[in-house]
Amino acid sequence: MLAPHSIRVHTTALAVFLCACGLLLAPGVGAQQPVTPRFPRRTEPPSPFFSSTPRGIDIKASAKVSDIPFEEWIAEKSVNAIPWSVEVSEPHLSIVQRLVVNFRVAISPKAFRSLGSGYHLAFAVRLKLAGGRYLEDGVHVGMTPMEELPKNAYVEFTAEAFVLPGEYTVAFIVYDTATGRRSTGTRRLRVRAISRDPVAELAKNLPPVEFFHAGFVSDRDADPALRSRLFLPVPTRRPVRVEILVNFTPSVEFEGRRQAHERNASIMLGMLKVVSQLEFPNGAVRVTGLDLLHRRILFEQEDVRELDWTRLRDALAQANPLRVSVNDLEERHRNAAFFRQVLQSRLQPPRLDRATRSAARSDPAAEPVRVILILSSPLVFPEHSDLDPLPAVEDGDCRIYHLQYRLTPWNVWDELRRVLLEYKPTSFQLESPSEFRRALARILADLRAL
After folding, report:
1. Containing H/E element for 262?
2. Which tens digit of pLDDT belongs to each residue from 253-306?
3. Is residue 102 assigned to a domain?
4. CB crowding 161-170: b at 16 or more within 10 Å, else e
5. Closest CA to 419 of 305, 338, 356
6. Which label site among 67, 191, 219, 440 has the fewest CB atoms less than 10 Å from its CB?
7. What's 189's domain CATH number?
8. Which class for 325: exposed (0-12), middle (13-18), buried (19 or more C-beta within 10 A)?
9. Same domain, 159 and 263
10. Under 8 Å CB-to-CB from 18, ≥6 apart: which residues?
11. Contact 174, 182 (CB under 8 A)
């Protein structure tokens, strides 16, 4: 069933943007394709790491736009009663390891003014696979009249969807329920499979098309309405205890730079979206989110089966890196010590019940393996930080995977490696979603061999 969307209004000196989904990544992570030069450059919304309130105004559709005869109108010859332009981006791999396509419809200032003051504008987009019918999942969104629009305002409807490889027809409708005027059109979309995909099985249970739905501020990848899951079973012979540590604080050279913090938060959320879907039939997973700037645990969830994205979002919304107390600044040299303390607590051998201890004495393979996944951008700590290597815990088997995702090409220095030195972690230096995908394949192969 098609769910109506809210629409967000963004204003610049020249434009009003109406975003059908409003669930965009922070700058630089799966960014939308460049738009035609005749339209002003769009402005990205803030990341949920800073605020639970987006810029602009959310307006609920007043028209029942989902009641339109969609397939009947599309079957007719293309209509252009409302001048418009349509764009469909090239599919690209997102940080959450899903192929993404962006859809955009723009109505020029002249066409917009021709609608008059009583318009009730609506937009719809749906896809169908070659030889099939239009899929039920799609976007329907309406726009009610607004007052005091800028003279050169134009209307832009945007939507984004995860897609599987295949040949699609994309159908668009823009119409004015007040006058009956409408424009319809279709575009062809070819989505190619990832070349030499090391983890092709990830898409096993995914629907062919899944649109992002409104309701989660700014970061589409953590949208709790996206219920489909990657296929990530990790069967192991030995029991495992998995710790996922996520550092939401970028390196010291990015202090006070909002865009860097937004990008870091978005990348960490995207990687967490993936690794939190690892399924261990013979183990348990705990997720811990860290705010090193304020030296506190932002988020913690035990025995994860489905991550509590709403609670995580609320926790991130309270962690404003641009608001730092005098005490935090004076004690910032203790940030590394805080990380060491948290990591050391996660490295302790798990407490075993009597039966497990007895089984481990007769069969060492019965003892749980500790697996620690550290998600972070390359991190340099403030001056005078304690960077001594964390002493290794000799009891039990422990595997550490350190995934470092660069925020910029020059974000290469990392002092976490020094802290982890005694544990000889498997480290990955990442700069793209495809590199993250290859790292994931390596980790899966290692863990499935346990």
Report:
1. helix 258-275
2. 787 777 888 889 889 999 999 999 999 999 999 999 998 888 889 999 999 888
3. yes
4. bbbbbbebbb
5. 338
6. 67
7. 2.60.40.3880
8. exposed
9. no
10. 7, 8, 9, 141, 143, 155, 156, 157
11. yes
In a domain, 228, yes or no: no
**How crowded is residue 179: how many other Cβ atoms within 10 Å of its Cβ?**
14
- For residue 287, the cross-strand partners are 244, 301
DSSP secondary-structure letter at 74? H
Q: 3-class SS at 379?
A: coil
- Cα gap 77→442, rounded to integer Å: 51
Side chain identity, residue 264:
N
Report the alpha-carbon distance of residue 220 to residue 449 in Å, rounded.
Answer: 34
Identity of the amino acid at 337: A
The count of domains in the chain is 2
Q: In terms of residue numbers, what domain contains 443?
A: 240-448
128 has a pLDDT exceeding 90: yes
Q: Report d(CA 314, CA 439) in Å as an integer.
A: 29
Q: Where are the beta strands (DSSP E) in 302-425?
A: 369-376, 398-405
Which DSSP state fits 353? -
Query: Considering 222, 256, 272, which residue would you say is the last residue of a domain?
Result: 222
Closest-CA residue to 429 (of 444, 449, 410): 410
Answering whether pTM is above 0.85, one says no
pLDDT, tens digit, 9 for 90 and up, residues 165-213: 999 999 999 988 888 889 999 999 999 999 999 999 999 999 999 987 5
DSSP codes, 160-199: EEEE-SEEEEEEEEEEETTT--EEEEEEEEEEPPPTT-TT
The two three-digit tokens of residue 256, written as one number: 């006070």
What are the tens digits of pLDDT across the range 366-406?
778 999 999 999 988 888 787 888 777 766 688 999 999 99
Which positions ≥6 away from 40 have C-beta within 8 Å? 12, 14, 15
